[in-house]
């Protein structure tokens, strides 16, 4: 049976292991590549959604979601969606 370690020792050990394994660099790389792949994925999903549900439905849904998250970005999103749909 193993002895129970104090909480402070566990925390120090976790932080030390985190730094020794250079996990800050790995976390930054995952974050960077996630942001890098976000835009093409959204374009792909918008294209598939437009084919399945129609452009008007998808455009209205995307604009409503953007307004909920970013109230001042409606004109920007609408302009970009119109440009993308004309391609």
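^ Assign residues to that structure.
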């Amino acid at each position: 049976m193993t002895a129970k370690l104090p909480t402070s020792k566990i925390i120090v050990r976790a932080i030390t292991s985190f730094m020794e394994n250079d996990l800050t660099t790995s976390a930054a790389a995952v974050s960077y590549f996630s942001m890098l792949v976000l835009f093409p994925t959204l374009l792909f999903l918008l294209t598939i959604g437009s084919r399945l549900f129609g452009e008007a439905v998808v455009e209205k849904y995307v604009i409503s979601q953007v307004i909920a998250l970013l109230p001042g970005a409606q004109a920007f999103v609408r302009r970009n969606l119109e440009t993308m749909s004309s391609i």
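Residues 3 and 10 are 12 Å apart (CA to CA).
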